[in-house]
Design goal:
With 246 residues, the protein is α/β, with parallel strands linked by helices. It has one domain (6-240): Spore Coat Polysaccharide Biosynthesis Protein SpsA, Chain A, CATH 3.90.550.10. Helices cover 41% and strands 17% of the residues. It has helices at 19-29, 51-61, 76-86, 105-114, 133-150, 166-169, 181-191, 217-240, and strands spanning 6-12, 38-45, 65-70, 91-94, 122-128, 162-165, 195-201. The chain has a 7-stranded mixed sheet with strand order 3-2-1-4-6-5-7, with helices on both faces. It is globular. It starts with 5 loop residues before the first strand and ends in a 6-residue tail after the last helix.
């Protein structure tokens, strides 16, 4: 089998109701007749809700869907890196499995990357549009804080999707096992001299289940504090490894 052009990695933890929707959406938006060969890697990140059976059914319906099983959940970042390790595509990208992001956005990201002057040095990241005013203000404030800490220009730091050439993943080294992996990937791309391309995306409401994050003002405050701590930690670790010029 020829290696795919693009590998889409989606870590899922107890998302059995959303996984069939995700797979149908993938098959519809990336038909096998497409000129771009795409594979979907669903990471069953230690789920306990029977997700494995649902994923198996999806794989039987579309042979381009593969699964990576993490027996014990060790964090979002750990699950993501297991999926990236298994990816066979020239480009790799990831997004969330809660259907609050459009899997079709990875196709837009791939197009943006391959049309760039130097695709090997490109990092594509979403930029959420049409957001509620309160959420927009919070996102902008966090971006300003992160930009000050990292001495650069960073926007919508937690937006999905993320995409880059697979070969650059081999240089990641030890990545965070938790959600800080999003910050890690963004910071590493900027300070490796990558051309960061932003594509506009929308974030619909979750269809099934309930988010465990940002449900209350207290949750938002905790995430803000956690983000600042992670930014400082990532910067410190890059400096220690001699990889950061700031």
């Amino acid at each position: 089998m020829t290696a795919p052009d693009l590998s889409i990695v989606v870590p899922c933890y107890n998302e059995r109701e959303n996984i069939p929707l995700l797979c149908r959406d993938f098959t519809a938006k990336y038909p096998e007749s497409n000129a771009v060969a795409v594979e979907l890697i669903i990471v069953d990140n230690g789920s306990s809700d029977g997700s494995a059976e649902i994923i198996s059914n999806c794989m039987a319906e579309d042979k381009r869907i593969r699964s990576v099983r993490v027996e014990v959940n060790q964090g979002y970042g750990y699950g993501l890196t297991q999926g990236l390790n298994a990816a066979k595509g020239k480009f790799v990208g990831w997004t969330h499995g809660d259907m609050q992001t459009d899997i079709g956005d990875l196709g837009k990201a791939y197009k943006a990357a391959t049309q760039a002057k130097n695709p090997r040095q490109v990092f594509v990241k979403g930029f959420r549009k049409n957001r509620e005013f309160s959420k927009l203000i919070i996102a902008k404030c966090m971006a300003m804080i992160v930009s000050l800490i990292w001495r650069g220009r960073y926007q919508d730091i937690n937006a999905q999707p993320n995409l880059f050439e697979r070969s650059s993943f081999d240089d990641w080294g030890q990545a965070p096992k938790d959600a800080a992996i999003e910050l890690f990937a963004y910071y590493r791309a900027v300070h490796s001299g990558f051309n960061v391309i932003r594509i506009p995306v929308e974030m619909p409401e979750r269809l099934h289940g309930q988010s465990k994050m940002n449900r209350t003002l207290a949750d938002k405050w905790k995430q803000a504090v956690s983000t600042i701590r992670n930014c400082l930690k990532i910067k410190r670790e890059f400096r220690k490894a001699g990889r950061s010029p700031v």
